[in-house]
Amino acid sequence: MAPDLVPFLMFEGAAGDALDLYVSAFDDSEVVDVERREDGTIEAAFLRIGEERIRLFDSPVEHGFGFTPAISLFVEFDEPEEVDAAFAKLAEGGGVLMPLDAYPFSPRFAWINDRFGASWQLSAKPAA
């Protein structure tokens, strides 16, 4: 049996807000499962974007580190307009690493950190 590889995003109390943002940013997405602690923070949650799952978690322990753009979530869209829509939501309150534009490797691309610090590369599939 092959192992599953699932990206795991750890937050400090903002996993619920991140779930809300991510579901609003991607048309083909849904929260698959959420387990909450008594205080309302997330013990475990799964988000589906397209065919892929992402696990989210609120750490009950404070950490001296956060997300880094050295690892990012790469989302490839069929249409350039889908990149624009996701960019508009995910970039709000975050930071742009590569601006929304056409690049030699993609007709529409942007690389951002969302307001929680998670890094996203958003790309339209090249025309066939």
Model description:
The protein is an alpha/beta fold. 18% of the residues lie in helices and 43% in strands. Strands 1-4-3-2 form a 4-stranded mixed sheet, with helices on one face. Strands 5-8-7-6 form a 4-stranded mixed sheet, with helices on one face. Helix 1 (15-25) packs antiparallel against helix 2 (80-91). The longest helix is centred in the last third of the chain and has 12 residues, at 80-91.
Secondary-structure map:
Layout: E1 8-11, H1 15-25, E2 29-36, E3 42-49, E4 52-58, E5 73-77, H2 80-91, E6 95-103, E7 106-113, E8 119-124
Parallel strand pairs: 1-4, 5-8
Antiparallel strand pairs: 2-3, 3-4, 6-7, 7-8
Helix pairs in contact: 1-2
Q: What is the radius of gyration computed over CA atoms, rounded to a whole number of angstroms?
A: 15 Å
Number of distinct beta strands: 8
Write the H/E string, N to C: EHEEEEHEEE
Query: Total helix count?
Result: 2
Shape: globular
End-to-end C-alpha gap:
35 Å
**What CATH architecture label of the largest domain applies?**
2-Layer Sandwich
Number of domains: 2
Structural class by SSE content: alpha/beta
Look at the structure and give the mean pLDDT. 96
Strand order, main sheet: write it out: 1-4-3-2
Reported by name, the CATH topology of the largest domain is: Signal recognition particle alu RNA binding heterodimer, srp9/1
Largest sheet: 4 strands, mixed
